[in-house]
Amino acid sequence: MGRDQRVPPVAQGSGKTDMSVRARTIAFFLPQFHTIPENDRWWGPGFTEWTNVRRARPAFSGHDHPRRAGPLGEYDLRDESVLHAQAALAVESGIDAFCIYYYWFSGKRLLEAPLDLYLKSGPDFPFCISWANENWSRRWDGKDHQVLISQEYDEGTAAEVFRDMLKYLSDPRYLRVDSRAVLVVHRVDHIPHAAKLAIAWRRIAREAGIGELYLIAAETRRHIDPRPVGFDAVAEFPPVGANTLGSALLRPPPRLDAKFRGRLMSYERTARRFMSRRPAEFRRHPGVMPGWDNSARRGPNATVYVDASPQRYSQWLAHARDAENRHGKDGLVFINAWNEWAEGAYLEPDASHGDEYLSATRPDYAWRAIPSKRPVGMPSVAWLRSTALAAAASALNAGRWLSERLRTSIDK
Fold first, then answer.
1. N or C terminus: which one in the chain shows less Cβ crowding within 10 Å?
2. β-strand 339-340 against 345-346: which pairing, if any?
3. Distances (CA, A) of 63 to 66, 69, 293, 300
C-alpha cells in the first residue's frame, strides 16, 4: 500500500461522539515484530515476538494459549502495508494515535525499522514516541541479572538522544496537545537528574523549531509525581502497581498446573481499583489494558489477569474516557497496548475473540452483558503461592509508601 492509499485522518473516523471535543485515545505500539541481528544472537536465529507467542502453553483449564493471529497474520513490521492496515483498523475502532516504543542505548538504536518506515511511507495517522529507557536483560528466561544491553546516562545523554528524536517530532503527523509535542518516557525514575534532562529537551526543542513539549512519564512505578522531574503529566500504565492482594484472584481456576509459580490476578478487581483511584494533585492521564498474561514470555512464572473480556475492558475504557472528556481534545487515554501479543495485552484481531476488542474500543460500542465467571477449581499449593506473592507485593508497596512519606517529612 503506497502513500496515495493512506487511511483517512483520524478526525474523519466514524462514531456518534463529537470527534472535535472528546478526549483522544492513544495505544502503545510494540515494534518487535521483525528480526534484528541482536535478537538473533541473544535468542536464536529468526527470533521475533511471534516466537514467544507460539510457544506459550496453558496453565489451567480455559487458559487461552497459544494465541493465534487473526486476519493480519504473523506480520513483519518492515512491510509498510502492515502499518497501513493497522492504522486503518485503529481509525475504525476509535484509536486516535499510536505511541511507538523508541529504543536508544547510548547512541545505539534497536528495533528502529518500523518507526523509520512509518516516518518514510507510513499512514496519515498520528503517532508519538515513548523512549523505552530500560536495560535489556534475560528476564524472559529467568536470568534477570544478565544484561544484554544497558542504558547509560552521562552528561551528553539528554542532547544526544533528543537530537535523534527530532526527525520524528518534526513530522506533521506527530501527536500534539495544545500545540505541544507529546513525548513519553517509559522509566523516568531510572534517569539521574531527570529534571535537568527535561530542561535540556525543552531548550533543544525550541531551538530546533519543534516548539514546546508535553512531557509524560509512564507510571511504570506506582505514585510517580511528574512535578519534581520537570514533566507535565503521568500516564497510568496498568497493570503496574496492581499485582497486590487487592487484585488477587480469590477463586482458584480449575485444574491449575502444579508447576505454576507465577501470580493469578483478577482483571475485574484490577479494573475497579483503577477506576476508583483518588484524583491526583497533578495531571494524570488514565490508562487501560485489554488484558494481561505474559505466559508467552515467562512460562510457569507468568502473571495472568484472569477473566478479562471485551465487555469488562469496554467498561473500563468508557470510564477513563469520561474522566478525560472534560479536557476536550487535550484529554488523553492510554491503552496498554495495541500489539503486546506476548503479554496478552493487544487489540488486534485473533483466533479466539476475532475483532471483539477492536469493536469494544469504539466510543459507540453497544454494551453487552458481562460474561459469567469461570468455574472455580480446588485450592492448591500453586494458587496459595500466587496469593502469598500478591500479599508480599502489598507489604512491599506499603513499606515504600511509608519510606517516601518519612523522607518527605524529613525534607520539609
1. C
2. antiparallel
3. 9, 16, 10, 13
Grid cell locating 396: 512491599
Whether the Cβ atoms of residue 359 and residue 365 lie closer than 8 Å to each other: yes
Residue type, 244: T
Concatenate the DSSP letters of all residues of 176-199 into one string.
EETTEEEEEETTGGGSTTHHHHHH
In tens, the pLDDT along 238-276 reads: 999 999 999 999 999 999 999 999 999 999 999 999 999
pLDDT tens digits along 270-293: 999 999 999 999 999 999 999 999
Residues 6+ apart with CB under 8 A from 261: 300, 301, 382, 385
Predicted pLDDT at 143: 55
Q: What angle do CA 99, 184, 297 make, to 5 degrees?
A: 65
Query: Which CATH superfamily is 3-411 part of?
Result: Glycosidases (3.20.20.80)
Residue of 290, 386, 384 whose CA lies nearest to 344: 290
Between CA 286 and CA 276 the distance in angstroms is 11
Cell (9 digits) for 159: 542532547
**Burial group, residue 213, by CB count within 10 angstroms (0-12, 13-18, 19+):** buried
Cell 452483558, residue located:
369
Cα distance between residue 8 and residue 124, in whole Å? 7
Q: Is there a contact between 216 and 233 (Cβ–Cβ < 8 Å)?
A: yes
Going by C-alpha positions, the residue among 385, 382, 298 that lies closest to residue 57 is 298
Give 377's contacts (C-beta < 8 A, 6+ positions apart).
60, 61, 251, 252, 253, 254, 255, 256, 383
Q: Considering only CA atoms, which of 286, 347, 285, 308 is closest in space to residue 90?
A: 347
CA distances from 35 to 43, 46, 397 (A): 11, 6, 38
**Is residue 164 within 8 Å of 104, Cβ to Cβ?**
yes
CA distance 331 to 70: 31
CA distance 27 to 288: 10
Reply yes or no: is the peptide bond before residue 239 cis, omega within 30 of 0. Answer: yes
- Which pLDDT score is estimated for 297? 95
